[in-house]
Design brief:
Layout (H helix, E strand, L loop, with lengths): L1 H10 L3 H12 L4 H8 L5 H40 L18 H15 L3 E2 L5 E3 H4 L10 H5 L16 E3 L5 H10 L3 E10 L10 E11 L4 H16 L6 E8 L2 E14 L2 E4 L4 E11 L1 H6 L8 E8 H9 L12 H6 L5
Parallel strand pairs: 1-4
Antiparallel strand pairs: 2-3, 4-5, 5-10, 6-7, 7-8, 7-9, 9-10
Bound molecules: phenylalanine.
């Protein structure tokens, strides 16, 4: 019996076989237990000899089982170590990194240039009441400028008596909000999304503007001109720029000017500050007295200038991008081509 089990245990190839052997040999109904039961029929002398022998056999089988079990576990571990190894010296696979969207990069850049000139960043809602978007900016209902804005109107059910709202068509309503919130003097920019129902190579229904507003007791067009020149030098990274102030009309500024930048196109890239072309980059003017009044600022004491720049537009100019719509296509090949993604 002893030899049978010791040999079988030594030859067992896995834990399941080992467990079967344990049950057969030293389990409750195993062969050793059967032999123990026979002790009862023996004479006391025989029992004194056989009892200890059977106990010793049981111990021996149990320790053989335990030894074999740990040997099997060691072998399994060795096998895993042999097959599941990693070569930590292999070069890692390249990981593509996300990058900041070009419009966000340009917005950051614009904000930091104006921060250097003492302008803080202000914000307003993208769903704006038509009072802030139009009336307060001296664009009453029926004013032709309302039609020119290609406005998206928020739907209202019959009986809804909340004031009418629109998707803001420009960042100028933030002028009014800033005036009401902080009073004069003011020096802010307001970058953000604006919406107009328009779509072609140079227009998308959502685009970005940055508004500028400076109000104090002795602000003039001369301050506006310097701030814009300083901005263009920093943004286009040139030593000298030339701006052309072209008389224009906005209901919320008087006088109003559209500002063009002297430039030229050389092999598809823009050269700023030289050449015979003029590129329109923004609208501006002195804040209309009615607009100051709507913002609770006394127009007899304070004046200010305001301007609005198309962020997407100056980003296209700076990076030589011909189609504005590409900014919103999320095409990685395009982003990589312009160096906006890795
Ligand atoms: N809000 C004007 C636009 O969207 C731009 C502008 C801003 C003009 C401030 C003058 C002053 O076209």
């Amino acid at each position: 019996l002893r030899q049978k089990y010791i040999d079988a245990i030594a030859g067992a190839g896995d834990e399941a076989t080992l467990e079967d052997l344990r049950v057969q040999a030293v389990g409750k109904k195993g062969e050793v237990a059967l032999k123990m039961r026979e002790l009862g029929k023996m004479t006391p002398e025989e029992r004194q000899v056989m009892g200890p022998k059977l106990n010793a056999l049981k111990d021996e089988i149990n320790s053989a089982l335990a030894a074999k079990k740990s040997a099997l576990a060691d072998a399994a571990l060795d096998e895993r170590l042999r097959t599941e190894w990693l070569d930590v010296t292999l070069p890692s696979r390249p990981q593509r990194q996300g990058t900041i969207h070009p419009i966000s990069q340009v917005t950051e850049e614009v904000s930091s240039i104006f921060a250097d000139m003492g302008f803080a960043v202000a914000e307003g809602p993208q769903i704006e009441s038509d009072w802030y978007n139009f009336d307060a900016l001296n664009i009453p209902p029926e004013h032709p400028a309302r039609q020119e804005h290609d406005t998206f109107f928020m739907h209202r059910d019959a009986g809804d008596n909340r004031p009418p709202h629109v998707l803001r068509t420009h960042t100028s309503p933030v002028q009014i909000r800033a005036m009401q919130a902080q009073g004069a003097p003011i020096r802010i920019i307001a970058p953000g999304r604006v919406y107009r129902c328009d779509y072609d190579q140079t227009h998308t229904p959502m685009f970005h503007q940055v508004e500028g507003l400076a109000i104090d007791k002795d602000i003039s067009m001369a301050n506006l001109k310097w701030v814009l020149e300083e901005f263009c030098r920093a943004f286009f990274e040139v030593d000298e720029v030339e701006l052309r102030f072209r008389a224009s009309h906005f209901p919320f500024t008087e006088p109003s000017a559209e500002v063009d930048l002297r430039c030229s196109w050389q092999d598809g890239t823009l050269k700023v500050g030289e050449g015979d072309d003029w590129m329109e980059i923004l609208g501006s003017g002195m804040v209309h007295p009615k607009v100051l009044a709507a913002g609770n600022i006394d127009p007899d004491v304070y004046q200010g200038f305001a301007f609005g720049v198309g962020i997407d537009r100056i980003a296209m100019l700076k990076y030589g991008i011909p189609d504005l719509r590409a900014f919103f296509d999320s095409d990685l090949r395009w982003l990589r081509h312009y160096g906006f993604a890795s």
